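During the reporting period the student researcher (J.K.) took over the structure-prediction task from the postdoctoral fellow and processed the backlog of single-chain submissions. One of the processed entries is reproduced below for the supervisory committee.
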Amino acid sequence: MLDPRGDYRAALAEQPFEYLFSITHLAVIPADVIALPTKGAVNFHDGPLPRYAGLNTPVWALLNRETDYAITWHWMTAGIDDGGRGLSSTARVGFMG
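J.K. obtained the following structure tokens:
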């Protein structure tokens, strides 16, 4: 675990590594950092892409009364939430009332 407010570029560049995982990281990771892992950078997105890109996706799904929902793991690129989808898991959700 690295402090995202610190000099994580230098720490990551010290030795080769295969994967970079971004999970609930709210800052955009620069392209030069995404390029450091030898096999790729992977992001966890708490919603189905591309339908629910961006922030607060579970809340938007609740407000829209979705009947199914998903989380997505995707390859990271310099763009936000636009890399190729790696894995997505969908589940049915229900509402009380």
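The committee noted the following: The chain has one domain: 8-92.
J.K. will present the remaining backlog at the next meeting.
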